[in-house]
């Protein structure tokens, strides 16, 4: 299944697969969904190849299981939030904060703009309004 060299060093190799794929469990599971995810994330936090695992899961467009410390059996925004927490906002989506386009990007991502982006968008709006007034004067 895996051909990557980093898989040999993964800590999850000796663990119960049911922990990493709780949604696919058949019948009565030994673990609750939350318990499985928490255990899997604990293993991932200690794993030396965690970033490589996450990158591989993203490349394969995984939709189930815990990969690289992120639970992929949730909404896209949930996955995006977990990745932000692990890697930092600017590594996941590269845009410049404190700009009008940054405020628009926050809106497209379904979140409230950060204060720097919100202030930049307000200032740009005021500049446009002032320019329109100047053009309207005879």
Layout of helices and strands:
Elements: H1 17-20, H2 33-46, H3 50-59, E1 66-67, E2 70-71, H4 76-87, H5 89-92, H6 100-108, H7 115-136
Antiparallel strand pairs: 1-2
Helix pairs in contact: 6-7
The end-to-end distance, rounded to whole angstroms, is 73 Å
Please give the order of strands in the largest beta sheet.
Answer: 1-2
Number of strands: 2
Largest sheet: 2 strands, antiparallel
Give the total of domains.
2
Structural class: mainly alpha
How many H/I helical runs? Answer: 7
Order of H and E elements: HHHEEHHHH
Give the C-alpha Rg: 22 Å
In terms of per-residue confidence, which ranges show pLDDT below 50 for 5 or more consecutive residues?
none
Shape designation: elongated
Mean pLDDT comes to 79
Portion of residues within helices: 40-55%
Oligomer: single chain
> Beta-strand level of the residues, as a percent range?
under 5%
Report on this model:
This protein is mainly alpha-helical and 138 residues long. It folds into two domains: 5-92, no CATH class; 100-136. Helix content is 54%, strand content 3%. The chain contains seven helices and two strands, in the order αααββαααα. It has helices at 17-20, 33-46, 50-59, 76-87, 89-92, 100-108, 115-136; strands at residues 66-67, 70-71. A two-stranded antiparallel ribbon has the order 1-2. A hairpin with a 2-residue loop joins β1 and β2. α6 (100-108) crosses α7 (115-136).
